[in-house]
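User: Here's a structure from my thesis project, written as structure tokens. My advisor, Dr. K., wants to see whether a designed sequence matches the one we expressed. Can you design one independently, without my sequence as a hint?
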């Protein structure tokens, strides 16, 4: 990476030059400098099979069972990814299931997906062979427009019982938000990907399958912000309590899915947090990126 530091100097951060800064930038948010260039390893990604399938709420128990089986079998097929979204959509006044499936080879309906693709009835099915741009455009077309929004996340090891319990906790809250104008209130399960070493996330040495559970909410009126924030914060706290009670909780919070009230930097663990703070003091001794740059998750927040 090429980085502009707080003193205006332009430096390189990589495995051999400033490796401490290089590591910190991978997970440390906007706390160290402005990255003006990335050099990345790439690989060829040609055609793949993917799309979305929508189902009625009557299929939820089948979806949860299939997802738990998927989580236990992902090591056998690294080309598969699933995003299982269960949501209350105010425009339709109902709960629906939206399943995003993508297989990074041009193989139609591979065996690892068949427990999902066999579920009936299906309200909509866009599964097809396509390319990355095709699928990115499809995802973009499904996003809420002119809306307010919040993401909140929790991470835990999967069992059928805890996935069902998390769903029931979410379901018990839908009545409290169903009358909010423009509401789309989703509980989303997806697999935590394998993490390459050499970053600040505090996940090295962990290869257990993990569920990344996301609460994704959009709505239209600013006066509903307090209600949505309260409901989602209370719900994620209950999810964390349930997974702790079951011995399945993981402290990690995914930064891109985190709400302002979640302690992302602390979730990396005390050793990683201390390393990030030391790197900040070394490259930004006056704390410009802590106090002078708004937004993000700061290193010395109390």
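Assistant: Designed independently from the structure alone:
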């Amino acid at each position: 990476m090429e980085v502009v530091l707080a003193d205006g100097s332009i430096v390189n951060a990589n495995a051999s030059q400033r490796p401490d800064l290089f590591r910190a930038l991978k997970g440390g948010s906007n706390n160290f400098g402005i990255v003006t260039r990335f050099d990345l390893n790439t690989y060829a990604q040609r055609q793949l099979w993917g799309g979305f399938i929508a189902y009625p709420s009557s299929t939820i128990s089948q979806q949860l069972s299939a997802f738990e089986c998927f989580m236990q079998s992902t090591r056998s097929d690294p080309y598969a990814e699933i995003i299982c979204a269960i949501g209350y959509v105010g425009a339709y006044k109902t709960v629906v299931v939206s399943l995003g499936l993508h297989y990074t080879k041009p193989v139609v309906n591979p065996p690892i997906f068949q427990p999902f693709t066999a579920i009936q009835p299906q309200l909509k099915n866009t599964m097809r062979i396509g390319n990355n741009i095709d699928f990115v455009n499809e995802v973009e077309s499904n996003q809420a427009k002119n809306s307010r929004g919040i993401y909140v996340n929790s991470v835990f090891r999967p069992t059928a019982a805890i996935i069902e319990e998390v769903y029931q906790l979410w379901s018990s809250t839908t009545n409290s938000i169903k009358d909010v104008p423009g509401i789309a209130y989703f509980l989303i399960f997806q697999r935590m990907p394998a993490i390459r070493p050499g970053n600040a996330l505090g996940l090295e040495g962990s290869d257990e399958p993990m569920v990344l559970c996301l609460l994704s909410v959009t709505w239209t009126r600013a006066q509903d912000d307090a209600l949505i924030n309260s409901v989602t914060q209370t719900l994620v706290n209950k999810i964390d309590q349930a997974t702790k009670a079951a011995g399945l909780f993981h402290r990690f919070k995914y930064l891109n899915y985190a709400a302002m009230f979640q302690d992302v930097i602390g979730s990396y663990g005390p050793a990683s947090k201390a390393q990030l703070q030391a790197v900040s003091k070394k490259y930004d001794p006056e704390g410009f990126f802590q106090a002078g740059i708004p937004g993000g998750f700061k290193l010395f927040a109390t």
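When you compare it with your expressed construct, this may help: The chain has a mean pLDDT of 95.
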